[in-house]
Amino acid sequence: MRMTRQHQNHWSRLLSHRHRVDEGGTLMAVLAVLFVVMLLGVALITRIQGDFHNVNLQTNLEQARANAQSGVADALFQIDQRDGNPGSFCSDPAVATCTVSSPPGAPGTIYTAKWSAGGNTYTVLSQGQAHGVDYDVQAVIAARPVIGTGLTGSTVTFNGNSDGSYYVTDSHGNNTGAVANVAVATGGAMTCHGPGGGNVMYVPYENASLGNKCTPNTTAESSTTYQPQAPSYGCPPPPNPEGQPVTPCLPTNPAPSSCSSILATGSPGTVSGSDSGGWTISGGTASNPVVLQPGVYACYGGLTLGTSSTDVIEPNYSSTANGGRVQIYVFASASAAGAAAAVNLSLAGEINPCKTPLTGCTPGTSDIVGDPVDMQIYVGGSASTPGTISLGPTPCTAAAPPACTMANAILWAPDTSLTTTGASSALTWTGALVLGNMTVNGSPQMTFDYDERVATEFQATAWHISGYYQIPPSQFVMPNYS
């Protein structure tokens, strides 16, 4: 069948129209796909931008928090270095509020430290910033006593007519009226035998079995465990659980001096011995005492401090080296492996009896009694190999008042045993004693005074954060707050 030209033109027009219709449908489908892809892309970009924002906010928040914590850390460092003295830390001691901006390592950080004399604490507000994000914290920095009581022992026993007095005294040796706490370490016990009635004992730590002869028989409400550890052979010492006293440690940088160099230039008396057999420091009189140069000393093998009831040994009060303090560490050996073995300490005569005048003083008068903080003795050892502390020559005579052995010092020796027996080893001690086993037998009484300078100068060297939490920005006011 032959198609006419008219039919051919008609079919051509139909095919052309169909082709144009197909092209339009395809274009619409492509545009629809592109639109969907574009919507998904916008959603993805929006989500990514939100994630980036959240990540940046979290990063800035973490940085701001780190800066705020740096402010608290700087406050703790400043307070600890200055012994918590608001007069030296604060620009205005009367207000006792200090403001510090941009401490080292935390630019833009600002904090205040407000002193509370009644609570012996600082309240620290610290604000850290990072790219417009603030983080605010509040912390309470409190003193953690290195020595919490005047006398501490694992086991303390008073036998016979051994009643004594345990009071707080001022720098002239005068009784302030306060009672010195006597403590036993966790798991230990305090017992009193004989007539009793004269001992003044407050036991502020748990697990103390007093017995009915200790008067007054009083236990404080605190349930804080307390277990002093023997001084560490090196610094820093092993960490102790929260609430435990800080363990003293033998400094290594700079290295301690040898016990052979402990005498001040021109001092009378002698120092003799070796790191294998121990050291002896002796001599001196009330008018011409043995003078020890302030510093940190390592005496290995044991130490004898005074060999006669007439020996007088005191720090060089005119020296400011090491803060004017003589710190003696006594270990059994010069090697770390053998340092924990048993080590012995012997004390006799008068040790750090008076600060002015150098010719001696009488406690209770206008003379200043030797500051116990200026004479610190740390004795090593371990609970499994305890050492011993011996007192004075035997026999003791009445020619050595007020006792055969008198010391104004801090003695930290929790792994040693001390026994006093009547006149042969009487003891008058002012300062603080941290011992292992302690037994007091018979008369005369052991006299112990907890010098108030120990509390104000020695204890406040260990500060810690006792409270810490984040506060809302609306409650954070800088730089002054009430």
Question: Short description, anyone?
Answer:
Helix content is 18%, strand content 34%. By secondary structure, the chain is α/β, with parallel strands linked by helices. The C terminus is likely disordered.
Structural notes for this entry:
The protein has 2 domains: 165 residues, no CATH class; 309 residues, no CATH class. Helix content is 18%, strand content 34%. The protein is built from 3 helices and 30 strands.
Q: What is the element layout, followed by pairings?
A:
Blueprint lengths: L4 H77 L4 H4 L7 E5 L8 E7 L4 E10 L2 E11 L7 E9 L5 E5 L5 E5 L2 E11 L9 E2 L14 E2 L37 E2 L11 E5 L3 E5 L7 E3 L2 E6 L2 E3 L6 E4 L10 E6 L13 E3 L1 E3 L2 E3 L11 E2 L5 E5 L7 E5 L13 E8 L3 E6 L5 E8 L2 E5 L5 E5 H7 L4 E8 L12
Task: Write a concise keyword list for the protein shown above.
single chain; alpha/beta; 2 domains; 21-stranded mixed β-sheet; 5-stranded antiparallel β-sheet; 3 helices; 30 strands
* Strand residue content: 25-35%
* Cα Rg: 37 Å
- Number of helix segments? 3
Q: How would you describe the shape?
A: elongated
Taking all residues together, what is the mean pLDDT? 75
Please report the distance between the alpha carbons of the first and last residues: 111 Å
Sheet with the most strands, sense and barrel status:
21 strands, mixed
Number of strands: 30
Number of domains: 2
Question: Helix coverage percent of residues?
Answer: 10-25%
Classification by helices and strands: alpha/beta
Poorly predicted parts: 398-402, 478-482
